[in-house]
Amino acid sequence: MTTESPQLRWHDPVWQKQAHDWIRARAEQNSIRLTGEIQQPHAYAWSTVMRVESEAGVLFFKATAPETAYEAALTQKLGEWHPDCLPDLLAAETSQGWMLMRDGGEQLRTFIRPTQDIRPWEPVITRYAELQIELAGRTSEILGLGVPDYRLSALPDLYSHLLEDQHSLLLDQEQGLTSTEFQQLLALQPRFQQICADLAAVGLPESLNHGDLTDGNVLRKDGRIIFFDWGDASLTHPFVSLRTFFVSIEIALNLDDYVFTPAMAGLLERYLQPWQKFASREVLLSAYQLSKPVASIVKTLAWHKTISHLEGALREEYAWIIPELWKEFMFHTKGLDQP
User: Does CATH number 3.90.1200.10 belong to domain 107-337?
Assistant: First the structure.
């Protein structure tokens, strides 16, 4: 993804001054003296990150687009519930989606990609499963923060609404769906409804889905595992999180799409182990297969929420993702129906 664009709101001098003033004020309120210039290392259509040196170490500021402004409130609340695995938040302006936090440590990526050794994921994926189980009882509180409701009961209707936006499908365009594929997706609506029903029948509690569980969004510091960047979070079936988890590993290991190595299977077993209080290993493995097309639709919903607010060159840059995710959905649905 590119990080530079003249269309981004984060590069507007007026907005930047407001952000800089807020950072300085919140640091002062926390009795922290800044010692360096405020820098802006990342700027995307949906968020930006700034960093600044201080006497208390490096501080990071994040701002999100309005459609994901709930990230600040969610991060703040998760930090209250589970401070051991969330960033140390110094301040949050939840109405604007702004956060100021301490340096959370090194990205998991730095331990994985140089050697292509995915074993550092082992304690992380176990802790993530435990966190989801612990959060399963906070459904109403999570939804009250503005987190999208993508529970299994809601997904069939959301599937239909996605297909109504034919502009997002790029029909019969180079990077889009063909008219034949569109008709196939329309015909698959009852099948998707049945998949959601079958997955719900397993009986696992729905919980928080990080939405972008990659080796770039996990930090390690002083023995702590820290999950951050919750901008794609949603309330849905917990196994949906495994999609981006395994895509991250595909990228780290330079694998082709949908390759599943023995080491990846071992990580799946680690993730499923805490869930065995709800169902047997065999049932959970079956549920994981059912969750694959569901995860494709949840990811489509997340991207649609972002892309539908973009215009011009920015929209063109990311528009291909939605048709690609629909193709992924068809691939996984076909996989379920094959003997």
Answer: yes
